[in-house]
């Protein structure tokens, strides 16, 4: 019986220093090439595809696309901040949609808090697009926040909670579903009672300016 299969073989092409997004400091890296080979009796014989290049951190062993070598600490931090702002805005939009509608007061609040709290402008068209995507795909606020908050630090979790709180409380009469969701955010964001209370108090103080 002839045994034929495939095997990935990785080789080191280069070494150097880079800013590792996982370690958040400069580290040494290896530029690796991974290529699948056809095997005969478990022996690699013929390559069956082009090599795939990737960067591997020598410290944490995380792997990255080679584009990571073009990023320094400043650009990476800016990229992370931009990603967080996007996620926090989406979370705030989802909270307003818990009762199935979004009001003019909530739209105005989303625009103000996005600009002043999250340092990112958002117009009515974008809010409308985010609402449509959420409703068409039946995205729930609690599930979304549970997923994206895994890489937030504590200050980001607090800022996101403030954004959600301000969006949900834009209308004078807040629905029970929104009240329940905001209360559940403490557990979803893994906040202590003190952290949650401090974030809400900060949001109430921000409300004067937002």
Q: In terms of per-residue confidence, which ranges show pLDDT below 50 for 5 or more consecutive residues?
A: none
Structural class assignment: alpha+beta
Shape: elongated
Q: What is the first-to-last residue Cα distance?
A: 74 Å
Q: What is the oligomeric state here?
A: single chain
Examine the coordinates and then state which fold CATH places here, giving the name of the CATH topology of the largest domain. Answer: TerB-like
Q: How many runs of DSSP E, i.e. beta strands?
A: 5
Query: In CATH, what is the class of the largest domain?
Result: Mainly Alpha
Biggest beta-sheet profile: 5 strands, antiparallel
Instruction: Report the C-alpha radius of gyration, rounded.
Output: 23 Å
List the total number of helices: 7
CATH H-level homologous superfamily name of the largest domain = TerB-like
Sum up the structure in keywords.
7 helices; alpha+beta; five-stranded antiparallel β-sheet; 210 residues
Task: Please give the structural blueprint.
Layout: E1 4-20, E2 25-40, E3 43-47, E4 52-57, E5 63-64, H1 73-96, H2 104-116, H3 124-136, H4 141-148, H5 154-168, H6 176-188, H7 193-206
Antiparallel strand pairs: 1-2, 2-3, 2-4, 4-5
Helix pairs in contact: 1-4, 1-5, 2-5, 4-6, 5-6, 5-7
């Amino acid at each position: 019986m002839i045994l034929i299969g495939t095997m990935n073989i990785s080789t080191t092409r280069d070494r150097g220093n880079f800013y590792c997004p996982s370690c958040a400091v400069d580290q040494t890296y290896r530029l690796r090439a991974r290529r699948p080979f056809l095997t005969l009796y478990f022996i690699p014989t013929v390559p069956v595809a082009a090599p795939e290049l990737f960067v591997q951190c020598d410290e944490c062993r995380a792997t990255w696309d080679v584009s990571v070598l073009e990023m320094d600490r400043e650009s990476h931090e800016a990229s992370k901040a931009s990603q967080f702002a996007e996620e926090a805005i989406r979370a705030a939009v989802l909270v307003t949609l818990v009762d199935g509608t979004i009001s003019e007061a909530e739209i105005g609040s989303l625009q103000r808090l996005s600009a002043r709290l999250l340092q990112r402008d958002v117009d009515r068209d974008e809010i409308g697009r985010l609402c449509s995507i959420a409703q068409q795909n039946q995205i729930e606020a609690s599930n979304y926040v549970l997923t994206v908050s895994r890489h937030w630090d504590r200050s980001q979790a607090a800022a996101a909670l403030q954004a959600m709180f301000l969006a949900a409380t834009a209308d004078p009469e807040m629905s029970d579903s929104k009240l329940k969701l905001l209360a559940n955010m403490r557990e979803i964001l893994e906040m202590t009672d003190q952290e949650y209370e401090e974030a809400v108090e900060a949001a109430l103080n921000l409300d004067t300016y937002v």
